UniProtKB/TrEMBL annotation:
<feature type="signal peptide">
    <location>
        <begin position="1"/>
        <end position="29"/>
    </location>
</feature>
<dbReference type="InterPro" id="IPR008354">
    <property type="entry name" value="Glc-Fru_OxRdtase_bac"/>
</dbReference>
<dbReference type="GO" id="GO:0016491">
    <property type="term" value="F:oxidoreductase activity"/>
</dbReference>
<dbReference type="Pfam" id="PF01408">
    <property type="entry name" value="GFO_IDH_MocA"/>
</dbReference>
<keyword id="KW-0732">Signal</keyword>
<feature type="domain" description="Gfo/Idh/MocA-like oxidoreductase N-terminal">
    <location>
        <begin position="39"/>
        <end position="162"/>
    </location>
</feature>
<dbReference type="InterPro" id="IPR055170">
    <property type="entry name" value="GFO_IDH_MocA-like_dom"/>
</dbReference>
<protein>
    <submittedName>
        <fullName>Glucose-fructose oxidoreductase</fullName>
    </submittedName>
</protein>
<dbReference type="Pfam" id="PF22725">
    <property type="entry name" value="GFO_IDH_MocA_C3"/>
</dbReference>
<dbReference type="InterPro" id="IPR036291">
    <property type="entry name" value="NAD(P)-bd_dom_sf"/>
</dbReference>
<feature type="domain" description="GFO/IDH/MocA-like oxidoreductase">
    <location>
        <begin position="174"/>
        <end position="278"/>
    </location>
</feature>
<dbReference type="InterPro" id="IPR000683">
    <property type="entry name" value="Gfo/Idh/MocA-like_OxRdtase_N"/>
</dbReference>
<keyword id="KW-0560">Oxidoreductase</keyword>
<dbReference type="GO" id="GO:0000166">
    <property type="term" value="F:nucleotide binding"/>
</dbReference>
<dbReference type="InterPro" id="IPR050463">
    <property type="entry name" value="Gfo/Idh/MocA_oxidrdct_glycsds"/>
</dbReference>
<dbReference type="InterPro" id="IPR006311">
    <property type="entry name" value="TAT_signal"/>
</dbReference>
């Protein structure tokens, strides 16, 4: 038997295709001029903003790169020239709050180290802007709560930079698991990591106060959410242990973490994250079959198969799909698919994993 995506998906893809064809008609295209796109300002012009988000914003249909916030004056001209950003839409960390007076900016996208997520999310909401905040959402659940409540108070939407919720292979894992296509998922194994090379450990990612932790915060967050969206459940408890092969390098944060998560429906997830191994897999077993994606969590080159055969999905620019979906949520005043509450749920699990690393015991989530 060959692998069959759902009929509903097929019909939806067909209608999206037709919709695309209609929108590309010159008369209809004139109805959605560039001015109608929502303006996004990127805060923090590091490797993710420069390497992924700005290029993705050249593909987006509902939003565009309208502004930047940077503490490095040399980057201003480079970005302004490359992306045609007017001087009035360029801010630094001191004058950032005056973004409140700029109608070009609808959405602020916080792409800073984790310890700055809370501050800039709250400042953006207070400036009247909708917010996308990168993962992991914050240093703690308590910070997540402050961010969610500040956005609620300002009546602004808050979204997390969870690109995989918009990615076809991961969406199929959600469908197969949550709809119990092969029966209820009984076991998951998942791993996500990369080799953190070099000898300089001064980067913010290796500082507990700046990153909140090591690979668990950075890469393990995807494993936590992968198991959560395959089961569609919240874990009851976790049990974790860690391993260090380079303790002199990983002085403040973990190097490799293994953990188990138990879900209410009976599924046990065996998980791993590491700064010492290249890995990216999400595999699920159920009574009537199995399904997996590998690579599972990267920006591209994802592949999937089930016990019935390969998954036939196209490659997409995940960040473009994610930002377009948020722009639509803002326009239509509907909740984000990945709101702050979703980031908070992952942080709750991550906190339990750190507690288990400390106690050596099973910890309730
Ligand atoms: P980076 O180090 O390349 O960039 C961070 C930026 O923040 C730099 O431009 C830096 O100058 C600026 N910055 C401002 N104040 C700073 C301070 N006090 N200390 C250090 N830097 C400061 O990091 P990155 O890889 O671009 O990551 C940024 C955020 O994006 C993180 O939250 C990270 O987890 C997230 N991220 C998400 C994905 C994803 O797939 N969603 C991928 C990579 C990174």
């Amino acid at each position: 038997m060959t692998y069959q995506p759902s009929r509903r998906r097929f019909v939806r893809n067909l209608s999206l295709g037709l919709g695309g064809a209609l929108l590309s008609h010159p008369l209809l295209a004139a109805c959605s001029p560039r001015e109608k796109k929502l303006g996004i300002a990127l805060v923090g012009l590091g490797s993710y903003a420069g390497g992924q988000l700005a290029p993705a914003l050249q593909e987006t249909k509902n939003c565009y790169l309208a502004g930047i916030v940077t503490g490095t004056p040399a980057k201003e001209k480079i970005w302004a020239d490359k992306y045609n950003i007017p001087q009035k839409n360029i801010y630094n960390y001191q004058d950032f709050d005056s973004i409140a007076d700029n109608p070009d900016i609808d959405i602020v996208y916080v792409v800073l180290p984790v310890f700055l997520h809370k501050e800039y999310t709250i400042r953006a909401a207070k400036a009247g802007k909708h917010v996308i905040c990168e993962k992991p959402m914050a240093l703690s659940v308590a910070e997540c709560d402050e961010m969610i409540s500040a956005c609620k108070q300002a009546n602004r939407l808050l979204s997390i930079g969870y690109r995989l919720h918009f990615e076809p292979f991961n969406k199929e894992m959600m469908r197969l698991g949550q709809q119990k296509v092969y029966g209820p998922v009984t076991a998951i194994h998942s791993s996500n990591g990369f080799v953190y090379g070099g000898t300089d450990n001064s980067a913010w990612r290796l500082k507990k106060k700046l990153a909140g932790g090591g690979p668990l915060m950075d890469m393990g967050v995807y494993v936590v959410q992968g198991a959560r969206y395959v089961t569609g459940e919240e874990p009851l408890w976790v049990k974790a242990r860690q391993e260090k092969t380079r303790p002199e390098f990983f002085t403040e944060v973990e190097e490799t973490v293994y953990w188990q998560m138990a879900f209410p429906g009976g599924c046990i997830a065996n998980c791993k994250t590491s700064y010492n191994e290249n890995a990216s897999i999400l595999h699920a077993d159920a009574p009537k079959g199995w399904f997996e994606i590998s690579p599972a969590y990267g920006y591209g080159g994802l592949a999937g198969k089930t016990s019935q055969g390969p998954m036939p999905f196209p490659h997409i620019t995940q960040q473009a799909a994610q930002m377009d979906a948020f722009a639509t949520a803002v326009r239509t005043s509907t909740p984000s698919i990945v709101p702050g509450e979703e980031g908070r749920k992952d942080m709750k699990v991550i906190e339990a994993i750190y507690r288990s690393l400390d106690s050596g015991q099973q910890e309730k989530v």
